[in-house]
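Q: I'm writing up a methods section and want to include an example of the input and output format. Could you take the sequence below and give the corresponding predicted structure tokens, formatted cleanly so I can copy it straight into the document?
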Amino acid sequence: MSNTEMIKPRYMSTYGTAFYSGLTVEDLRLMREHGVGPTYIKICNEIRYDCKDMDKWMEDRKISIDEEDQQFEALCHRLHEDIE
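A: Here is the clean output for your methods example:
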């Protein structure tokens, strides 16, 4: 491994997870509070996220362009029906 390659830690803090995932620290806190979102580990008062769990959680939420288009078309159809 070269010096320029990033070494990904196994466990990340909430701040590290926010940076890694593109979510905010507040998003992660709210998800924990409501029992949704990625799994996490709590040791005393410290929260840690497993990189492998985050990768899987994000992978499970991928939406293909076709699925997104279908959702958009369905929304447009419902909105159009409400207008009529």
